[in-house]
Amino acid sequence: MDRTQILCPTCSSHLLQADDWQMHGEETWEVALRCPECGWSERSLFDSGAVAWLEEALDAGTQEILVALEHAQAEAMAAWVASFSAALSADRITPADFR
Q: What would you report as the CA-atom Rg of the chain, rounded to the nearest whole angstrom?
């Protein structure tokens, strides 16, 4: 299964999500897919190989999100530190700020 086989048929988003999956026979899975961008959803049948690929794609997407979150947190902390340092340098922080 290649990535184009799971594009949203309505908006062509590659962000399809598997909301649910259940065995449907010995080598077939019924997967509930949903597009977070346009709201399209459908239950489809996939073979075990396609489901394994989908699971790997979901894991890779989760890892991408975690990396983006770490970067956003680091940027936010750097901005906070810069702001706090500037306030300290300008004597704008007093003991009353820590009550």
A: 23
